[in-house]
Amino acid sequence: MLKPFLLLCTAVVLVLVPAPRPTLAAVSSSAGSSPTGSAVQDVNTKTTPVAHERAKKLYAMDCALCHGDNGNGKTDIATSLSVTLLDWTDPKSLSDKSDPELFDVIRKGKGEKMPPEDPTRAKDDDVRALIVYIRAFSKGQSSPPAPTAVPPAAAAPGK
Fold first, then answer.
1. How far apart are CA 101 and CA 19, in angstroms?
2. Please, are residues 104 and 35 in contact by the beta-carbon 8 Å criterion?
3. Residues 40-96: pLDDT tens digits?
């Protein structure tokens, strides 16, 4: 009973609630931090414990509903929206995505089904820490071994 209710509530929120527009203060405070400017840099570094906890809370509030608590993308919401999400527990899933690309998707959203992260709710540093947090889902997961060359088949006897 709870799952259908949560799905319905989420669908209503995603459809009916318009994305918040940044206030003048938010626009002026983020003026020098556009996704193509210096605000976006590779974040493949460790974050502070405080930034990690903030990213963890932000993920739980804004991302886990669709992407899953562990980042595998297998949730009832994703299924009900007919969306196939990347499995972030797979080390290959984000290997071809740069940090600026991830920053851009998080900040601007993707299509109609992934809302943007409001700059008044998450500052640029929070989004950078969120990227580190998301990339960490695949840490400790063993990558599949690289394919090895298959030895040529032995000639059939008598040929």
1. 21
2. yes
3. 455 555 789 999 999 999 999 999 999 999 999 999 999 998 999 999 999 999 999
Average pLDDT rounded to a whole number, residues 145-149 = 41
Altogether, the residues listed in the chain come to a count of 159
Given a contact cutoff of 8 angstroms between Cβ atoms, the answer to whether 105 and 84 are in contact is no
CATH-assigned architecture of domain 40-138: Orthogonal Bundle (1.10)
pTM of the model: 0.62
What is the CB neighbour count within 10 angstroms for residue 89?
Answer: 17
Quick check: helix, strand or coil at residue 136?
helix
Q: Both tokens of residue 64?
A: 């886990």
The single-letter code of the amino acid at 130 is L
